[in-house]
Design a protein that fits this description.
35% of the residues lie in helices and 24% in strands. By secondary structure, the chain is of the alpha+beta class. It folds into two domains: 188 residues, Ribosomal Protein S5, domain 2 (2-Layer Sandwich), CATH 3.30.230.10; 151 residues, Alpha-Beta Plaits (2-Layer Sandwich), CATH 3.30.70.
Length: 354
């Protein structure tokens, strides 16, 4: 270890969540996607993680304490330990660390926002910062963000996209030769200005715990009767979406985004262990959104993660009209009339904790 670098210290990152437009659903190997996905990284829904570390060559197994919201969380600590064990081949110095991880979200756990994406994203960034502090450089990758994305993917697939602001793609695709299965890639240089101020109003339909975890949901795709056609359609939809994003075709963006959201839930309903995550109020909101768009000719659409809560996407130019519509027509379908406003974001931020 160079004498100029530190063998102990503290690092901190804030990493936002993201919402997928083309969905990642189904995986193989070491957390590799069965189809490429495209997402928008959010601005205001984020995880902050602080890691205090000490490098000690006398220990040969990483020692971890994990706290979430200032409380010891043994369940997630076990998940973090598994993650750190899996990335040790790329980060062998980890076995000589004592680390204390303090993590917190600024959004409710039940908000329909991917906390694993922001959580593992922020942790991966912290680990890369520790490597820089210990050895003065990042090893094995083109740059810091690429390595952080690679590591985040191993913790949670969608986390690799949260390492970048704006739009990113994860999964190899012939339309974008720089794309990869093992890390996400920033594609903002391909995006038309009309999409660069996208707003995301998250309508909280239900805070109930999901029947099936995302990991179990991905596993159901292994024997799914429609898996092959799903991956073929996802490929063609992704190519169509890239064209729409490049040309500023809002109508096509809306069509593909809503089709993908519905397709994700159709796959769940048609799996061997079929399950339904949509709620009656989810469907009521979707119907009202489509009717309002048709009547008022406003560019807005919905998408969904693997849950009942709606992400309503629209450009900044129609923010007032859409939010009036939310308050007047949609909040009655939300649990306790709750909703969260967010927008496209600039990506993770390293925090100054000195």
């Amino acid at each position: 270890m160079p004498e100029s670098v530190k063998n102990s210290g503290k690092v901190a990152w804030r990493c936002p969540s993201n919402i997928a437009l083309i969905k990642y659903w189904g995986k193989h190997g070491d957390q590799l996607p069965n189809n490429a996905s495209i997402s928008i990284t959010l601005q205001n829904a984020f995880t902050e993680t602080i890691v205090t570390f000490e490098f000690d060559e006398s220990i040969n197994n990483i020692e971890v304490i994990f706290e979430f919201g200032q409380q010891r969380n043994e369940s997630f600590e076990s998940r973090v330990n598994r993650f750190l064990l899996r990335i040790q081949p790329q980060m062998p110095f980890l076995r000589h660390l004592r680390i204390n991880i303090e993590s917190k979200n600024n959004f409710p756990h039940s908000a329909g926002i991917a906390s694993s994406a922001s959580g593992f994203g922020s942790l991966a960034l912290c680990i890369c910062s520790i490597e820089e502090l210990l050895f003065g450089q990042i090893s094995g990758f083109l740059d810091f963000r690429q390595k952080a994305s690679y590591l985040a993917r191993i913790g949670s697939g969608s986390a690799c996209r949260s390492i970048y602001g704006g739009f990113s793609i994860w999964g190899q695709n012939s339309t974008l030769p720089e794309s990869s299965d093992v890390y996400a890639v920033d594609i903002n240089h391909h995006i038309h200005p009309v999409f660069q101020d996208i707003q995301d109003s998250i309508l909280l339909v239900s805070s109930e715990k999901k029947q099936v975890s995302s990991s179990d949901g991905h596993a159901l795709m292994e024997h799914h009767a429609y898996a092959r056609i799903r991956y073929q359609l996802a490929e063609s939809k992704l190519q169509e979406l890239i064209t729409a994003l490049q040309t500023g075709d809002m109508e096509q963006f809306i069509l593909i985004t809503e089709s993908e959201a519905v397709s994700l839930h159709a796959l769940m309903m048609l799996s061997e262990s079929n399950y339904i995550l949509l709620k009656p109020n989810t469907l009521a909101i979707i119907e009202k959104v489509q009717r309002f768009r048709a009547e008022h000719k406003l560019p807005m659409c919905f998408t969904l993660d693997a849950g009942p809560n709606i992400h309503l996407l629209y450009p900044e130019s129609v923010r007032e009209e859409v939010q009036n519509f939310i308050n007047d027509e949609l909040l009655q379908h939300c649990e306790h009339k709750q909703w969260i406003h967010d927008r496209i974001g600039k990506g993770p931020v390293k925090l100054d904790i000195a």
